[in-house]
Amino acid sequence: MTTQILIVLLTFIAFAGLILSGKVKIHVAALLIPIVLEVTGVLPFKDAWEV
To answer: What is the pTM of this model?
Structure first.
């Protein structure tokens, strides 16, 4: 398992945990995904924020 796959997997688990706990709203948790993937270098800026 590569580092990038591990980061994506942990990000997904954290996202699911935040949503299921009810501590944050879904749109806040959804915005955290591209931020985490960009900061960790998994995705470049253009790909993380492409619509």
So the answer is: 0.81
